[in-house]
Predict the 3D structure of the following.
Amino acid sequence: MSMDNDQDLKPLFQRVEPLGTALPERVMNQIREKHLKRERFFVKNKVSILLIAGMLLTASTGFAAVKYHSLTNGQGEVVYEEKSKAESPSPKDYSKEELNRIHLMNTIWDEQIKPGEAAIIYVVPDNPKHAIDIKSTPHAVKDFAKLQSMVNVPGLPLTKELSGSGTYTFNNASVHMERETDVNPLTEQEKANIAKKLLEKAKASGKDYALMPVKFTDNFWISTVYYTSDKKEVSLTILNNGDHGSVTSYWDDNSDMINRKIKINGQDVLQKTWNGGSSAQLDWAYEEPTTGHRYMLRLSSAQGEITAEELIRIANTIIPKPDSK
């Protein structure tokens, strides 16, 4: 995995340590979810990497080189593009001391921050620079009405059922809400003051760490919604990219992926298949006409053999038809 200069991966799919801007910290929370496999996204202008919707790059050999594509909005601006993994940001080297601190911080994150919570973590050992980390876990949502109140995309309302060759019914969702520190990042002085308070709190409690709660805003950042039909499951991931520029994904040139650009209801869609077509996903972009607010959407086969053709049937009911825009 390649990280930006403020991040690094602990074990695969689990933890990253943020020390820099708010968005990279928020982005890397998504690594915690076990369904994240194969792919990475890089949000320009924020120097951040995010992992969404179950696709981490996996090395493989003996396959034809992958053809990469991009998506543009009505003004011809690139909102999503794909590149080779060779072009991804270089990883940062961490000292043994930093890695020790990060390992403990990740353990605390896992054990102390419950679903739907966010907190500032201060670790005492191996922390001479008094670094703090802002971490959160996604909300686990099982009530559809609650999900609708949390995830609102103007012009693209969530539905409780999706239609393909059969009916896929809402099962559950994972929702990352935007944190207040993402909207109003802490200054260096504020970080130093918080670190000092948390150090005193840790010493008073006799623990090697201390936490400070962080509030969420009313806006979601990324959500993955799961729909089931018998033993099959599809996932719909929505990334709220706002005005943060374009999103870039980095792929293994030698992966066994077949990548095509198709149209669904007049919308450009990137179709990917693996394993001879038994595993697939569709990626497309949506820009809210009035505000220009940008979203990335992904429909994926999550469980069972769900072909690209089946995903297209479902996407036809999600992507607005030209005359309904």
